[in-house]
Write a structure and sequence with these properties.
The chain is of the alpha+beta class. Helices cover about 15% and strands about 45% of the residues. The protein has a four-stranded antiparallel β-sheet. A hairpin with a 7-residue loop joins β1 and β2. The radius of gyration is 15 Å and the shape is elongated.
């Protein structure tokens, strides 16, 4: 089966550190088994969770940051968490 992903690369936007988008959610178009729609946002985990629907199949992800401070050096790392709903 081939999935028809929405125009534009929503995943790449969410993973781009220069783009404010920090989550993306892909969902099947009603009645289709191959067409997906994408929604994304900049509101973080709370906005991502609000977009989830109990009666839908979703694939998505959001950005989390690991921050370590040692002395006067701060390390900030991005991680992308993917979910299947």
């Amino acid at each position: 089966m081939t999935l028809n992903l929405p125009a534009g690369d929503a995943w790449a936007k969410a993973q781009d550190p220069d783009d404010p988008t920090n989550w993306v959610l892909l969902s099947y178009v009603d009645g289709s088994k191959t067409d997906l729609t994408a929604v994304s946002g900049t509101g973080g985990l709370a906005e991502f969770c609000a977009a989830l629907k109990d009666d839908a199949i979703h694939y998505g992800g959001f950005v989390v940051y690991g921050v370590d401070g040692r002395g006067n050096i701060t390390s900030r790392r991005e991680k992308f968490v993917q979910i299947t709903w």
